[in-house]
Amino acid sequence: MSTTRIGLIGYGQIGQAVHKMIESNADNGMEVVFVHDQFAAAVESLPGDLALADLADFESRRPDLVVEMAHPDVTRKWGTTILEKTNYMFISVTALADQEVENSIEEVTRRAGTRAFVPHGGVVGMDALLENRDVWESVDVVMKKPPHNVDCAAAGLNPDDIKEETTLYDGPTRGICPLFPRNVNTHAAIAYAGIGFDRTHSLLLVSPEWTEAIVEIHAQGQGIDLRVARTEGITGVTGASTPASIYNTVQMIGSTGPGIHLR
Ligand SMILES: NC(=O)c1ccc[n+]([C@@H]2O[C@H](COP(=O)([O-])OP(=O)(O)OC[C@H]3O[C@@H](n4cnc5c(N)ncnc54)[C@H](O)[C@@H]3O)[C@@H](O)[C@H]2O)c1
Fold first, then answer.
1. pLDDT score of 60
2. Is the CB of 68 inside a 6 Å radius of any atom of ligand 1?
3. 96 lines ligand 1 (CB under 6 A)
4. For the chain, is the Cβ count within 10 Å smaller at the N or the C terminus?
5. Complete domains list, the chain, with CATH
């Protein structure tokens, strides 16, 4: 069995959980060969030479797959450099709302023969959105979150001052991504899978009454009506189900282990 060598970027909530899940299954045919974070303190307790201080040295670890779990800026700065050499999965999908970033990733994968991956992450039903992307006439995303779990400062608001249900954004998905880059990856993945950033409609609401995150997706087309809603706990910017979802996609790409594999 061959082993897939994996590099991790971002060692916060999701990065740590995914690392643990990869390491906890000896049969999955995956090995973490580096972990990089912008803050050295985040990775100082890692054993041996697993921490990679300078991402520019990523090639020295010979990764087969690099997984970003940090911030969309990483893809902007490093996406094409990594893809020149190896495969790259980025979970901060809002990076794709920048048409230049999307084009440059497409271009480098063609030239270098590498592959870029976007996980479904927080999107329940991304398969259905993708498989029927030619059918949808409209796709609407409604996201409801507690104010402290959204970077409200981007809208010029202090979360403590929000006393009632407040609309932070109502418009095309292309516009919400640069405003709330850490909070609306779900919107970005829905747009990319379905009818694109300009035709997908995004609504972002906050209220101090809410303690959980809710995402509602409504896609409509000739003879088909898809409605998905999920309510879940949220810590920081991340929903409770996301770390396991990201690991699942990593293993779909990288696992070389035995067993029956769901696709
Ligand atoms: N695709 C999805 O469904 C989905 C869902 C939730 C979160 N996310 C995104 O995943 C990312 C990680 O989420 P999290 O909850 O683990 O966040 P977190 O804040 O707990 O951890 C992020 C880590 O990345 C590091 N980091 C940030 N910018 C960096 C950079 N430029 N270079 C290197 N390291 C950097 C931080 O120091 C931190 O340790 C965020 O961008 C978040 O928006 C995506």
1. 98
2. no
3. no
4. C
5. 4-121+242-254 (3.40.50.720), 126-239 (3.30.360.10)
* Pairwise CA distance, residues 189 & 89, whole Å: 13
Binning pLDDT at 50, 70 and 90, where does residue 26 land? confident
Closest CA to 177 of 95, 118, 91: 95
Specify whether the CB–CB gap between 72 and 9 falls below 8 A.
Answer: no
Report the separation in Å between the CA atom of 69 and the middle of ligand 1, taken as the mean of its atom positions.
5
Residue whose C-alpha is closest to residue 61's, from 7, 16, 3, 23: 7
Contacts of 134 (CB under 8 A, 6+ apart): none
**Buried-state track 159-193, b at ≥16 Cβ within 10 A, e below 16:** eeebeeebebbeebbbebbebbbbbbbbbbbbbbb
Q: If pLDDT is split at 50, 70 and 90, which confidence band does 155 have?
A: confident
Q: Taking a C-beta distance cutoff of 8 angstroms, is the pair 185, 91 a contact?
A: yes
Q: Is 70 in the pocket of ligand 1 (CB under 6 A)?
A: yes
Contact 244, 21 (CB under 8 A): yes
Q: Is the CB of 71 under 6 A from ligand 1?
A: yes
Please give the number of the atom of ligand 1 that sits closest to the Cα of 71.
41
Measured by CA distance, the residue closest to atom 39 of ligand 1 is 12
Q: Counting atoms of ligand 1 from 1, which one is nearest the CA of 122?
A: 3
